[in-house]
Design brief:
Elements: E1 2-5, E2 8-14, H1 24-44, E3 49-54, H2 78-88, E4 93-94, H3 95-99, E5 110-111, H4 117-120, E6 123-124, E7 127-131, E8 137-143, E9 159-164
Length: 166
């Protein structure tokens, strides 16, 4: 779903979960990401753009609790990461990385329900807010971990981006 607000096209994104590397679901995910990059490139010809939501991709090793534990897994495959980079190459920037304090990594946004992953810090950064420079000045980015602490929470924490348009 997308809407233009204050001159910025803002789109909510859910990239399908690939389930297993090499599966039909995974191949469909890669095709979907390619289509999203094409859509983004076209959308950027009409003005500023922000894409936000569950991308089901951890773009860097730093975006997972233990890269070695996830070798060969979905969300971190080379092909998924390349598809994410292709999306950024349309003219979008990862706002969490742009706004992270020097020397710090952005917070995880997802934790498995099983095995106490949240409390052990076994998470991934798979939810993103990607913004074109023309969207305006990026002011703040946050992950609301408190929402993940309640009874029956989502496995994702909400993320927010504040932008000064113009």
């Amino acid at each position: 779903i997308a809407a233009r607000c204050a001159g910025i096209q803002i789109a909510s994104v859910y990239v399908p979960n690939g389930r297993e590397v090499g599966s039909g679901y995974w191949r469909a995910k890669l095709r979907w990401m390619e289509a999203l990059a094409h859509w983004s490139r076209e959308a950027l010809t009409t003005g500023p753009l922000i894409l936000g939501g569950d991308f089901n991709v951890a773009p860097r090793d730093e975006d997972v609790w233990d890269p070695a534990a996830l070798v060969g897994a979905t969300h971190v495959s080379e092909e998924e990461r390349e598809a994410h980079q292709a999306l950024l190459a349309t003219g979008l920037a990862d706002s969490a990385l742009q706004l992270a304090p020097a020397g710090e990594q952005p917070a995880f946004t997802w934790w498995d329900y099983r095995g106490g992953a949240f409390h052990r810090g076994h998470g991934m950064r798979i939810d993103h807010l990607l913004a074109s420079p023309s969207a305006g000045a990026l002011i703040s980015f946050s992950v609301d971990r408190d929402e993940r602490k309640g009874s029956l929470p989502s496995d994702h924490a909400p993320i927010t981006l504040t932008v000064r348009a113009g």
